[in-house]
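Researcher: Re-running this chain for the archive, since the previous output was lost when a drive failed. Same request as before.
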Amino acid sequence: MSEPGRVAPARRRGLADEVADRIREAIFSGVYAPGAQLREVELSQALDVSRGPVREALLRLEREGLVRSAWHRGATVITLAPQDIAELDSLRGALEHLAVQRVVAHASDEDLAEIGKTVELMKRAEDAHAMVRCDIAFHDAVYAAAHHQRLDEAWRALRSQIHLFLLTRIGLSSDGYLAHIPGEHRRLLAALQARDTEAALELFAEHRRHALDVLITEEGQRP
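Model: Regenerated structure tokens:
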């Protein structure tokens, strides 16, 4: 503890940050699926670090909403419950509504070109996990083009959980995913380029509904 009236010494957290990045990447790549256990000993051996940075990294990922810790099970990749899915979808919708309005009103041609680059990247996505990355990158570009700092920060706080949401979606069913997603995003981009707020809002809502419908339908068919 620091003495009264004094600032506590800073702690170096670079290694824990790097470990968190590696574990996050493994989750997003499908190495650790929802529900998978993340054992400190195994991770420390695989990453060639002590257990301290691994423990810190897991705490950071828990704050991001990617990992859940329980005393009797240790850390696991979060499995989204129906309430989690509903809450993420509704919050994403609220943020996206404002983002789309602001992009139509304030985005420059250069901003729209950056969004377009992410759509082009989708043509080269070789698997569903790569396509999810492109999907997230598209929305990163949309929020950047909104030119609203706190809105972008709100998206960044939710971003990892939305990535997990989409991973859950492809985990349940990836039928047609690679074929349909690029076209959906080309239509989203076209509406933004046309500065058509009503059409853009409807298309973005339809895009969200499609992912949600897959989750609800496939979850409902599970035994």
